[in-house]
Every structure is written in C-alpha cells, then in structure tokens.
Design brief:
GO molecular function, one term: 3-oxoacyl-[acyl-carrier-protein] synthase activity
Helix content: 25-40%
Pfam family, one: ACP_syn_III_C
Number of strands: 11
Strand order of the largest sheet: 5-4-6-7-1-8-11-10-9
Largest sheet: 9 strands, mixed
Number of domains: 2
Number of helices: 11
Protein name: 3-oxoacyl-[acyl-carrier-protein] synthase-3
Keywords: Acyltransferase, Transferase
Length: 343
C-alpha cells in the first residue's frame, strides 16, 4: 500500500539495561555453545517494570518530540505480543489515562512481532478516511520476564528482549516519510506457532510455558503442512519486498539500511540480506544483537538508533521487514527527509 504524504513526526523508546550473553552463561541461563554459533550479544531486561509503563514512557518521548498535545491525536494503536497485565484489563487504557485522554480512540492489536506494520496500515486508513484526522500514536511494548517464558531459550537463534517503543504517524511534515507498507499471510503455516497444542483451554490459563522450539520440533516430527509451507513463505516475503520497493520507484540497491527481526547473524543474513543481494553492513544486526528480539518493537528501535547515530541521513531509505505467527510477512519503506528534534 503506497502511503504518500504520511510522515513520522516523533519517535520514542524505552530500553531497560541489557544483560550480556556472557553473564547469562555464567548464571546457567544461556547455553555456552550458542554464544559463538549465533553471535548474539545480550538482551534488554526490564525486571518487574510493566510493559504498559514502558509503552507510556516511550510514547511520552515521541509526543514530546512531535511537539503537539497528545490529546489532539485522532487514534492510538497499542501492539503487544505477550501478557500485559491483569486478565480482563486493557493496556491502552493506561495510556489513555496518563497521556492521550479518553477522547482519543484506542485499540490493542495482536499481530505478533509484526504489530507495528499492522498498526501503520490501520492508522493510515483511519487518517485517510476524514480530512480533519491528522495524527496517530502507534506504540508497542512487552516484558517477557514471566514464569511461562524462558527469554534465553525463546527459539534457536533468538533471545527475547524487553522494550517499549512509539511513533507518531502524521499528515504533517516529519523527519521521515512512510513511502509504503505491505502485508501478506501464508495461512497454511499457522500451525507452526501452535504445534500440537490444543486450542482450548488457552495455555496461559493452565500455566503451560511457551516454547516455540518445542512447537517447531513437533511440526518437524509430524511432517506437517506448515513445515512444507516455509519455503513458500520465504519466497513470498522477498516477492512482497520487491513489489513494495518497485511500487516506490526504487530497487534493492537503493536500500541504505534494512531492519529485520533481531535474530542471530545466520538467520538475518540467510533469510533477509542474502536474498536481497545486500551486505550485512546495511543491516541493523550489529545493534539488534545487543538488545534481543523485542517483539513488535524491533524495527522502531532500529530506526531510532540508526537515525540518532547518523547511520541514516536525509535522502536515504530504510526497509523494515518482519515475520510473525500466521505466518504473516510485512514490510515498510521509509525515506529520511530531515533530522528529528531531541525529545
């Protein structure tokens, strides 16, 4: 979906202190043999700081940078991948109370690690629907430090990190232009993230831990349709990127930086950079490896880091590319047009 005249007017992030893989190995949390194999550096660990509080702090930073009252926004979308607080309670209401107010419509979406892409698509459509609608606040946050999640063994080549992020999507000029955002799903692969587990009762209600590695292994043993669909998903992901980039009149060579999920080096290189024909030096992996896979926050964290460190400058382009349960494949193309104000 082409998104001309939509901009990022503010960006915020709350990233807690990181724990290195060396410290995790010393504490018996991370396999020593995985350090060299996956070349991950560590993960941001929030302790008992709730995800909605991280989201609020990131959102406050983005709104401050944008420079307009949060109460003037026309929509807020909250993306999450993991439990946010008490069952039966909605995390976006916390941000309504403490930041945007009750007159701003707010919703939570569950699109896994691709939540920010879905938030962009929904926000663009909402703002386009009425000329007077101008600004949307998109937030994401997760804290994986719960008894049902082992962040250090989330998945082979993946360590879970905690973070909160936020962007202001606006029709007003901003430091970055959202050129296009696209999404497609391979539904025959949905069981990969489900494994052989029953749909009812939900795992959280019976205290069963989440193990993506265990679910994938079950699918391998079962020789499932989902495993057979993996090759299709990989091809479709690259085809979706190609269509999106071409739609904007660009080629892969025009991509100055690429933010994939914060996975291991071999996954980022083999599943993302090599198919695009681009070197790892154009990826955000050097940064992502230090903070862990932070759910739906990975891409915003990378954008903020690359802009603030001068690795993305006006006139340059960034591709955000993600995969999530479904299997959902999504991407967004961004052009840097200015320098954001310090929040």
């Amino acid at each position: 979906m082409r998104t001309p005249d939509f901009y990022i007017g503010g960006i915020g992030a709350f990233l807690p202190p990181t724990v290195t893989v060396q410290d995790a190995v010393a504490e018996g949390l991370y396999p020593a043999e995985d350090v060299e194999l996956h070349q991950l550096g560590g993960a941001a660990v929030a302790g008992d700081l709730p995800a909605p509080e991280m989201a609020l702090r990131a959102a406050q930073q983005a709104v401050k940078q944008f420079g307009q009252p949060a109460t003037d926004f026309d929509l807020m979308i909250y993306a999450s991948t993991w439990h946010q607080g008490p069952d039966g309670w909605l995390p976006h209401s916390y941000l309504q109370r403490h930041l945007v107010g009750g007159a701003v419509p707010a919703v939570e979406i569950r699109q896994g690690c691709n939540g920010i892409f879905s938030a962009m698509m929904l926000a663009v459509s909402h703002l386009r629907a009425e000329p007077h609608r101008r600004h949307a606040l998109l937030v994401a946050a997760d804290n994986y430090g719960t008894p049902m999640m082992d962040r250090w063994r989330m998945n082979p080549g993946t360590i879970a990190g905690d973070a909160g992020t936020a962007v202001v999507l606006t029709k007003d000029p901003g430091f970055a232009e959202l050129l296009a955002v696209s999404s497609v799903t391979v539904p025959e692969a949905e069981e990969l993230h489900r494994g052989g587990e029953p749909l009812f009762p939900p795992t959280a209600t019976v205290g069963r831990s989440l193990s993506f590695a265990g679910r994938f292994q079950q699918q391998v043993v079962a020789r499932s349709v989902g495993m057979a669909a993996l090759a299709k998903a990989q091809d479709l992901m690259i085809a979706t990127v190609a269509d999106t980039v071409a739609e904007c009149g660009l080629t892969f060579d025009d991509l100055d930086k690429v933010a994939f999920m914060n996975y291991s080096r071999e996954v980022v290189e083999q599943r993302c950079m090599m198919p695009l024909g681009l070197p790892m030096s154009r990826s955000s992996w050097d940064y992502g490896r230090t903070v862990g896979h932070c759910g739906a926050s990975d891409h915003v964290l990378s954008l903020k880091h690359l802009v603030e460190t001068g690795q993305l400058r006006p006139g340059q382009h960034m591709l955000m590319l993600g995969t999530g349960p479904g299997i959902n494949l999504a991407c967004a193309l961004i052009k840097i047009v200015g320098t954001p104000e310090r929040a």
